[in-house]
Request: fold
Amino acid sequence: MHVKIYDTTLRDGSQSEHISFSVEDKLRIAEKLDRLGIHYIEGGWPGSNPKDIDFFKRIRDVRLKNAKIVAFGSTRRASLSVEEDKNIKSLLDADTPTVCIFGKSWDLHVRDALNISLEENLKLIEDSVSYLKSRGREVIYDAEHFFDAYKANPDYAVDTLKVAERAGADTIVLCDTNGGALAYEVRDIINSVKTQIKTPLGIHAHNDSDMAVANSIIAVRMGVRHVQGTMNGYGERCGNANLCSIIPNIKLKLKIDCITDEQLKQLTEASRYVSEIANLSPQNNLPFVGSSAFAHKGGIHVSAVQKNPLTYEHIEPDTVGNTRRVLVSELAGRSNMLVKAKEYGYDLDKNSKKVQEILARLKDLESQGYQFEGAEASFELLMRRSFGRAKKFFDLEGFRVIVGTRENKLISEATVKVVVDGKKEHTAAEGNGPVNALDNAFRKALEKFYPEIKDTYLTDYKVRVLDEKEGTAARVRVLIQSSDDRSSWGTVGVSENIIEASWLALADSYEYKLMKVMKENV
Reply:
C-alpha cells in the first residue's frame, strides 16, 4: 500500500496573499520538493501567464530523481473543439509527462458560471481527458467542487466522474474547493463514490473550515491513494491542505508509505526553506515542523519529558527533522534550568544553589519585562555570566543618537564609544533611523577588533510596549533576531528608552556572535 503525494505549492500555493514566486524561486522549490520525495510537482498553469511557460521550459534541464512535473489547466472551452482550444494546446506544449485538468462537478457552476447544459459539460470533460490521453499523457482529473456538488446533486456529480473514467483518466481527484466539507461528509461521500468508480481516487482539500488536513487523512483511511496539498498550507483564502502535516500523519500514524524515513527527516528543513523562498516568516506553531512543535515551557512538563518524552510528545522530533526545545520563562522550574545548563555544557545537581540563583534572576528580569523565549542567546549569556564563564569582549562607554534634518531630509546619526583590551574606539555612522544608525556605529567600532562581525546582520526587529497606560513613558521590550552564514539567534533589551533597549539587545547580539566564534576556534 502506497500513497502518492502531489504538491501544488507552485500553483495553488502561489495564490496565497503575500506570495509571488519568481521563476528562479519555483525552480529552487521544485528541486527541494524532489529531494523530499514528492511524487508530483504541479508547476503552474502554462496557459495563464508567461512566467509559468518559462518555468516549464527551464525545468526540463533540471534532473529530478523522484518527482514528475505536472502542467495544470482546465477542460476545453464550450465554444471550441479540443484541438482548437489554446489551454489544451498549452498543456501539451509544456511537454510534461503528466497533466492535471479540472472540470465542473457542481450543476450550479455548470449553469451559472459556464452557462451551458449539464450534458454539454459532460462532453467537455470526456473530450479533454480522452484527447490528452491520446497524446500520451498521464491524466489526473480534478473534480472541482465535488463535495458541494455531491450534496447538491449526487447523481450528476458522479456522472462527471464516470465520463472522466470512461475517457481514460489515470486518477480522479475529489476536490473540496470551497473548504466547507466536514470529515464525516468526506467519509460518507467517498464510500459512495467507491461503489461506482473503479479509477484510483485522490483528494484535494482547502482549509476554509480548518478541516483540510483532517479531510485528507480520512480520505486516505477510506482508500484514497493520491493526496494533493501545499507546503505549510499556503494557498488562496485560508490555504490548502498542509503537506507538512499530511505526510507525517500518513507515514507515522496511519503506517502507510508515502516517502522514505530519511526523506521524512528533511521535512522541517524543507518547510522552512519554502517559507524563506516565499519571504514569509515560518509559523512557529505549525504541527510537526514549527519551532514550537516540541517546545516545553512549564516546569512539570519539562521534568516529565526528561524522564520519558512520550509524556508530552506524540512523536520523536527527529523523525521529522525537528528538535526538542526547553523554554525559559517565569513558569520555568528546576528541570528547565538543568536542561538549559546541560545544553551549555554545565552539569548541575538539581539541588544546586546556582540553579536557584539563576531561576531567581530569571524571574526578576521577567518581572521587569524581559522575555527569553524568543531571546535564548541572551539567556545563554545570562547563564554563562552567572558561572563567571562569559568572556568580556568589549566594554560600552556610551553612545549618542541624533535625529534631525539636512537639506529637508530626515537623518539619523549615532556615535559609539567602546573599549577593547584597553583600546578605546570612538566612531560615528548614519542610518535609515536611530536604531539603524546605532547598529552601524556599533558595528563599525567592533569590526576594527573583530572582523568576524562583518558577516552578522539583523533579520528581525520587534518592539513591544509593556505598560500601555504609561503612554510615551512606558517601558518597552526590544527583540532582535540576528544571523550569520551558519545560524540565527535572538536577543532582548528592556528600558523606558527604546534606543537604550535596542542598544542592550544589540550588545548581547554581538557578544553572542563573538562567543560563537571563540567556541568554533577552540
